[in-house]
């Protein structure tokens, strides 16, 4: 038992370090190198790391509860006493609540305070004055968190009603503190769904189609020559007539000559086709899971479309169940899925920018994103990551609820014994005895939200349909558009000269 916990924890620590490395690379790549702020860097790296690690708790959760059951007998191992299982699940629950609380701290306290601190920046204001102004504005977001926690604390539990299963009764056992945190998680998930159904869904179509189409080559070689001459003139205009200036000009010229060769790269097209296949698998899995809940949910809209056992074939569910039997292969599958969906959200942010309705606020550009824009982009990525916990639960309910646990479904003389009936050892479902099949902490939390407050469960469910629709709309849009110009940078025309000057001086 101890080796199981130590092994799973060691892998999670490795994933934590990987998440920290990714968050650091993301911040380093996009932050403006001429306006770098240490506080912004620290907040974005820590916030994004915590958001990623919250999702990566899922396979550890599945692995630990799956290890309590012997698949050859369909019974609990001798060491898996109720006290031991309670200790494991309590530790996992504490980890989830700590990470979600940290996400709430970063998104509602640390990031708003840092944002307003630099928004109020000016030569005429001291550091103390900026800190006081930022604190005044941050009081509003802190008040929102307090209201949400208070609402959850005093929210009444649902009555058992017609669902008399022990599994449903366990969803109702919750004290005031747990209800408060669960309600806060539910609201953050709902906010994250806004990012999930817009940016992430659009990015799933924009990434592969953009890679397949590639960049449109310049209209003529004359255009390239003119652009090169213009860059060289700017080099000389800023006094770079030394050897470094000549090297910069040679570098620009060589990059321009090689630029045409990079268009229509066959490897990029192959990667684009692979990405399109992966996007299709994700969207099809979400669609099939949505249909499955319409036909097979045990209580429909009244309990947030909880599904006790998937009936429809779902590729992601099959992939997770297979990989869970070869831990930590399911970690690899989940890491690939999360990073791809995160890349889709990021690609949409870069392409569309941060907007309020139709009004653009900030653009996300390599080495040119202002501190405020980087903070908002990081907050949106964190909120975009949160719904992925629900998505895993949605498309792979068997994996996310019971993992690879199996139970003996044969009773002889009041005793469960499948030694003579191995075919009676079947995968766990919610009707299974709770003393053998232990649900994951993730499934308990998500289903508790859906069952006690069906409004949230319904919002999460219908958001999956919106996700599929937005993917199809985005696919039509990016397919109908021509390739993006290869001679135009991501920056606007007004920004290009300044950015070129900065890069030549660096």
Secondary-structure blueprint:
Blueprint: H1 2-30, H2 38-66, E1 69-70, E2 75-76, H3 82-119, H4 127-154, H5 166-172, H6 176-213, E3 215-216, H7 221-237, H8 243-262, H9 266-296, H10 315-324, H11 329-352, E4 354-356, E5 359-362, H12 371-395, H13 397-402, E6 406-408, E7 411-412, E8 415-416, E9 425-427, H14 441-452, H15 454-480, E10 484-485, H16 496-505
Largest sheet: 2 strands, antiparallel
Radius of gyration: 26 Å
Into which percent range does the helicity of residues fall? 55-70%
Shape label: globular
**Mean pLDDT score:** 80
Alpha carbon gap, first and last residue:
55 Å
Low-confidence stretches: 240-246, 251-263, 487-506
Summarize the structure.
This protein is mostly helical and 506 residues long.
Describe the structure.
This protein is mainly alpha-helical and 506 residues long. The protein has helices spanning 2-30, 38-66, 82-119, 127-154, 166-172, 176-213, 221-237, 243-262, 266-296, 315-324, 329-352, 371-395, 397-402, 441-452, 454-480, 496-505, and strands spanning 69-70, 75-76, 215-216, 354-356, 359-362, 406-408, 411-412, 415-416, 425-427, 484-485. A hairpin with a 2-residue loop joins strand 4 and strand 5. Helix 6 (176-213) runs parallel beside helix 15. The N and C termini lie far apart (55 Å).
């Amino acid at each position: 038992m101890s080796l199981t916990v130590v092994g799973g924890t060691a892998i999670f620590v490795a994933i934590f370090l990987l998440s920290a490395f990714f968050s650091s690379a993301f911040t380093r790549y996009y932050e403006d190198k001429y306006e770098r702020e240490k506080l912004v860097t620290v907040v974005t790296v820590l916030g994004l790391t915590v958001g990623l690690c919250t999702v990566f708790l899922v396979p550890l959760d599945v692995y630990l509860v799956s290890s309590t059951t012997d698949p050859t007998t369909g019974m609990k191992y001798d060491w898996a006493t109720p006290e031991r299982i309670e200790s494991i699940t309590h530790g996992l629950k504490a980890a989830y609540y700590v990470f979600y609380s940290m996400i709430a701290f970063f998104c509602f306290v640390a990031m708003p305070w840092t944002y307003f601190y630099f928004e109020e920046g000016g030569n005429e204001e001291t550091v103390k004055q900026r800190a006081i102004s930022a604190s005044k504005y941050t009081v509003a977001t802190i008040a929102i968190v307090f209201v949400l926690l208070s609402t959850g604390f005093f929210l009444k539990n649902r009555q058992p009603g017609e669902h008399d299963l022990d599994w449903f009764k366990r969803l109702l056992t919750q004290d005031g503190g747990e209800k408060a945190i669960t309600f806060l998680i539910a609201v953050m998930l709902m906010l994250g769904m806004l990012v999930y159904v817009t940016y992430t869904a659009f990015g799933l179509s924009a990434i592969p189609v953009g890679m397949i189409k590639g960049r449109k080559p310049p209209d003529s070689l004359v255009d390239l020559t003119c652009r090169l001459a213009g860059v060289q003139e700017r080099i000389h205009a800023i006094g770079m007539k030394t050897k470094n200036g000549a090297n910069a000009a040679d570098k620009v010229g060589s990059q321009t000559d090689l630029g045409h060769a990079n268009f229509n790269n066959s490897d990029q097209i192959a990667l684009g086709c692979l990405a399109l296949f992966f996007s299709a698998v994700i969207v099809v899995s979400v669609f099939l899971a949505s249909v499955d809940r319409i036909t097979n949910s045990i209580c429909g809209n009244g309990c947030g479309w909880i599904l006790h056992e998937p009936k429809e074939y779902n590729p992601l569910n099959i992939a997770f169940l297979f990989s869970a039997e070869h831990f930590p292969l399911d970690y690899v599958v989940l890491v690939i899925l999360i990073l791809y969906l995160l890349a889709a959200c990021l690609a949409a942010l870069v392409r569309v920018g941060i907007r309020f309705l139709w009004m653009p606020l900030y653009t996300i550009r390599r080495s040119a994103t202002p501190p405020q824009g980087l903070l908002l982009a990081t907050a949106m990525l964190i909120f975009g990551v949160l719904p992925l916990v629900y998505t895993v639960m949605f498309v792979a309910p068997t994996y996310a609820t019971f993992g690879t646990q199996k139970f003996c479904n044969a009773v002889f003389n009041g005793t469960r014994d499948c030694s003579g009936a191995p075919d009676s050892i079947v995968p766990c479902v919610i009707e299974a005895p709770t003393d053998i099949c232990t649900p994951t902490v993730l499934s308990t939390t998500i289903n508790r939200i859906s069952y006690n407050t069906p409004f949230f469960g319904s919002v999460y469910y219908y958001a999956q349909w919106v996700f599929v629709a937005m993917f199809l709309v985005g696919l039509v849009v990016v397919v109908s558009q021509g390739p993006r110009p290869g001679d135009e940078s991501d920056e606007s025309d007004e920004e290009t000269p300044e950015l070129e000057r900065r890069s030549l001086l660096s």
